[in-house]
Design a protein that fits this description.
The complex is a heterodimer. By secondary structure, chain A is of the alpha/beta class. Chain A has two domains: 11-52 and 90-201, Rossmann fold (3-Layer(aba) Sandwich); 59-88 and 206-389, Rossmann fold (3-Layer(aba) Sandwich), CATH 3.40.50. Chain A has helices at residues 22-39, 42-55, 66-72, 90-104, 117-129, 139-144, 146-154, 169-183, 200-208, 210-222, 237-243, 272-275, 313-321, 331-345, 351-365, 384-389, and strands spanning 11-12, 15-16, 62-64, 75-80, 108-113, 132-138, 158-162, 187-189, 228-232, 253-261, 277-281, 284-288, 324-330, 371-376. In chain A, the strands form four sheets. Chain A has a six-stranded mixed beta sheet with strand order 3-4-14-9-10-13, with helices on both faces. In chain A, a hairpin with a 2-residue loop joins strand 11 and strand 12. In chain A, helix 10 (210-222) packs parallel to helix 11 (237-243). The longest helix of chain A has 18 residues, at 22-39. The termini of chain A are far apart. Chain B is α/β, with parallel strands linked by helices. Chain B has a single domain, classed as Aldolase class I (TIM Barrel, Alpha-Beta Barrel), CATH 3.20.20.70. Chain B contains twelve helices and eight strands. The chains are: A alpha/beta, B alpha/beta. The interface between A and B is large, with 37 and 44 residues. The structure holds pyridoxal-5'-phosphate (PLP). Pyridoxal-5'-phosphate binds next to helix 5, helix 11 and helix 15 of chain A.
């Protein structure tokens, strides 16, 4: 079985595409062309690999979580993206896109951020490469992820508070796109997940697939045969990066974990796939949370990085085809799992990643006895305020 | 019920008569539900040729602060698709009316195209895309069948190839975005706009109207000295938004639209 998506127009089946203002059509086509050329250039790969290795600290360990394994009664490994420089997988993508931006000759970079991890990653690469950087962040997120705001500022970026709409990631993304439409001549939009118009979902997946490629090699080297891979899904970049190199291995079950928020009885959640319907948001067609008039609804998750009413188009496709299963865990389950990992393994996870961990209990319930790998997408320093408030 | 106006005939005839078109944008449900129709009546009475009725959307990517805020305000007031279609069918009785909005409304609202057709709307304007049918051909065929033409956009970033491609799309007119950016009144438009519009005039067979950023009679006049017409939105909403009552808003609307009409109609040699 060969998996060859997206097509030339950026579609994963009926999802993806380019639903953008005319002003962005030519720039997106040019970006797709530039990306294709770069992707075929061994020099570009070499430079990216060098930065991933010496600046970001890759490869990250595939860590056998022994005490967690004892607790659940099956073997659990953690892919330690929390150990990437700046504390999350987001830097993999930010490095790739920043190198592309410089290759194209753009001098100004903009980004959106929810948890602030992508904002910090972008601010970091812009500092490293001497690029001007503006990060859009919902006013509500600036409050709950204050340490990351301080980091971005120290790294020399301007953080612009977005006060429209829900004041979270959705509106930060809209505002970044408006900036891009206005300044497209010199500005590169460095998107933080596998969302947005083509070529972003493709490009971000390709920059994040290093997670899954390393995992595959580490498994082969050590004779580990995983039956299940688990990752949290916000926009879906850590999950796609982790899953993609395994997609043609039908013996490996892939499970994406959405933010169930306050639970299945509540309207307050961020489960775009499992509780949403297809629509068009931020440049592509995908599942979204919306009402009967197509108004985008406010998402809710205790984790700012998952608090988004949309999801990457490739996940919509993989959901429909059934190649990836998607499940939900609640705010409370995620909080409890974060505490458990801290106590058992000495690792404080990001709240986003804690959603993936929380599904382990369900696997145990279902009688799973083999080997699972969890993508630990980030570390929890940024969430200490939330952890403290929910003691 | 008046028959649906043929937008193709309207733009063709206007060009023949050298009549420059004035298109005004109003957000449905702004500032109050019961303001939309009286304001639309003023707009037509003061000499506008076409109204674009805005369907407020939660995430208007191509819109600047004015239309964003008006949309949010209308939604907070409880404006729903019921109001869009009711408003559209009332306003269509007064003159040619288009819907302006975002694709997600079109694809999500049940029976959207049929209902728009029943409301006698004569076209659809979707500034957030898709621009051409490459990403949405099934929808395109459907709306053509219902005689609900979609107005394509051209922007200063569009390539010559693309401009040529859009010109043969068989549209009643093309919406030329005057500047790379979002909607919103600008005090001035750069002189590069004139060069860009003059270039379009040379390349396009389809009538084209320019909008985005137009706020004054002077700018409107400058634009129609090249284009087939001008589209004004945010500047009207700004005035409506700062009115204390419907009466004041109507007065502002009438005077503002009239001033645009007069400037546009002034003989060119003046
Ligand atoms: C640590 C961490 N994990 C996951 C996510 C969710 O993003 P994605 O689904 O694109 O991996 C974020 C987003 O901010 C994050 O910071």
């Amino acid at each position: 079985m060969s998996y060859d998506y997206p097509d030339i127009n950026g579609f994963f089946g009926e999802y993806g595409g380019q639903f953008i203002p005319e002003t962005l059509v030519a720039p997106c086509q040019e970006l797709a062309r530039q990306y294709r050329t770069a992707a075929l250039d061994p020099g570009f790969h070499q430079e990216l690999m060098w930065h991933l290795h010496d600046f970001a600290g890759r490869p990250t360990p595939l860590y056998p979580a022994e005490r967690l394994s004892d607790r659940f009664g099956f073997q659990i490994f953690l892919k330690r993206e929390d150990l990437v420089h700046t504390g999350a997988h987001k830097l993999n993508n930010a490095l790739g896109q920043a190198l592309l931006a410089m290759r194209i000759g753009k001098t100004r970079v903009i980004a959106e951020t929810g948890a602030g991890q992508h904002g910090v990653a972008t601010a970091t690469v812009c500092a490293r490469f001497g690029l001007e950087c503006v990060v859009y962040m919902g006013a509500k997120d600036m409050e709950r992820q204050a340490p990351n705001v301080a980091r971005m500022k120290m790294l020399g970026s301007e953080v612009r508070a977005v006060t429209s709409g829900t004041q979270t990631l959705k509106d930060a993304t809209s505002e970044a796109i408006r900036d891009w439409v206005t300044n497209v001549h010199d500005t590169f939009y460095l998107i933080g997940s596998v969302v947005g118009p083509h070529p972003y979902p493709l490009m971000v997946r390709e920059f994040q697939k290093v997670i899954g490629e390393e995992t595959r090699e580490q498994c082969a080297d050590r004779g580990i045969v995983p039956q299940i891979l688990l990752a949290c899904v916000g926009g879906g970049s850590n999950a796609i990066g982790f899953f993609f190199p395994f997609i043609e291995f039908s013996g490996v079950q892939l499970i994406g974990v959405e933010a169930g928020g306050e639970g299945d009885g509540s309207p307050h959640h961020a489960a775009a796939l499992t509780r949403g319907t297809p629509g068009v948001l931020h440049g592509s067609r995908s599942y979204v949370l919306q009402n009967i008039d197509g108004q985008i609804l406010e998402a809710h998750s205790i984790s700012a990085g998952l608090d988004y009413p949309g999801i990457g188009p490739e996940h919509s496709f993989l959901f429909d085809t059934g190649r990836v299963s998607y499940v939900r865990v609640s705010d409370d389950q995620a909080l409890a799992s974060a505490r458990e990992l801290a106590k058992l393994e000495g690792i404080i996870p990001a709240l986003e990643s804690a959603h993936a961990l929380a599904h382990l209990a369900k696997l145990k319930q279902e009688g799973f006895t083999k080997t699972a790998i969890v993508c630990l997408s980030g570390r929890g320093d940024k969430d200490m305020g939330t952890y403290g408030a929910h003691n | 019920m008046a028959p649906t106006i043929d937008l193709f005939a309207l733009t063709r005839d206007s060009r023949q008569r050298s009549h420059k078109l004035l298109v005004m944008y109003l957000t449905c449900g702004y500032c109050e539900h019961n303001w939309t129709f009286p304001l639309a009546r003023e707009v037509f009475a003061a000499g506008a040729d076409i109204i674009e009725l805005g369907m407020p959307f939660s995430d208007p990517l191509a819109d600047g602060p004015t239309i964003q805020a008006a949309s949010q305000h209308a939604l907070d007031n409880g404006t729903t698709s019921k109001e869009y279609f009711e408003g559209a069918s009332q306003i269509s009785e007064l003159g040619p009316t288009l819907f302006m909005g975002y694709l997600n409304s079109v694809t999500s609202i049940p029976h959207f195209l049929e209902r728009a057709h029943d409301a006698q709307l004569c076209g659809l304007v979707l500034p957030g895309g898709p621009v051409t049918s490459e990403s949405f051909s099934s929808f395109e065929q459907f709306s053509a069948r219902l005689n609900l033409p979609r107005i394509p956009f051209i922007s200063p970033t569009s390539s010559q190839d693309r401009i040529a491609q859009i010109d043969v799309m068989d549209a009643p007119f093309i919406y030329a975005v005057s500047i790379a950016g979002v909607t919103g009144a600008r005090a001035q438009l750069d002189t590069s706009v004139d060069t860009y519009l003059a270039g379009l005039k040379k390349s396009l067979k389809t009538p084209f109207l320019a909008g985005f950023g137009v706020s004054s009679p002077e700018t409107a006049r400058r634009i129609v000295s090249i284009a087939d017409g001008v589209i004004v939105g945010s500047a009207l909403l700004d005035g409506i938004g700062s009115s204390a009552s419907l009466e004041q808003a109507c007065k502002f609307t009438s005077e503002f639209v009239q001033s645009l009409r007069e400037a546009i109609d002034e003989p060119l040699s003046a």
